[in-house]
Amino acid sequence: QKIERLKSELHLLGAAGKGRNKHLFFFDTKKEVQEFDIATHLDTVPELVDRVYNRPTVATLQKETLKGATDPVHLKKLAQQRKNQYDLLKQRIEREKAMFVVAQKIQTRKDLLDKTHKVKVKKETTTSPAIYKFKFQRKR
Fold this sequence. Notes:
Blueprint: H1 2-10, H2 30-35, H3 38-42, H4 58-63, H5 72-112, E1 118-122, E2 131-134
Antiparallel strand pairs: 1-2
Helix pairs in contact: 1-5
C-alpha cells in the first residue's frame, strides 16, 4: 500500500531510470530549422524550456504570479527531497520483489513435504525458487 501511495504522489516525473522524452518538431525547409526557437514555439519563457513538467505559457505568467519555489536554494532542497522519495520507492519495490521470492521458496518447500514422486526441473536461484514437476496422482 505504501508503494502505491508513493507512486501516486510522485507520478514518476523526471525519473532518472527512464530515458529522456523526445519531443519532435517537423519542418519543411532547412531555413525553418535554422530559424526555429523552441521558446517561441512552446509559447514560454526561455528559462522554463528545460522543464519537463509544469511549463507555463507566457499568457499564464502575465495573468498570475509564478506559484511555488523560485529561489535556487529552495529548488535544490525540493529536488533533493524528490530524489530521496524516489530512492525510498525504489528500495520498497526491491524489498517487495525479494519478499515475493522468499514466499515462493517457502511454498515450494511446503509442496516438497508431500510423498508424491517429483523431478527437479530447474535449480533454485537468488531470484526464483527451484521448480519441480510432480507426478499426477488422482484424488479419490
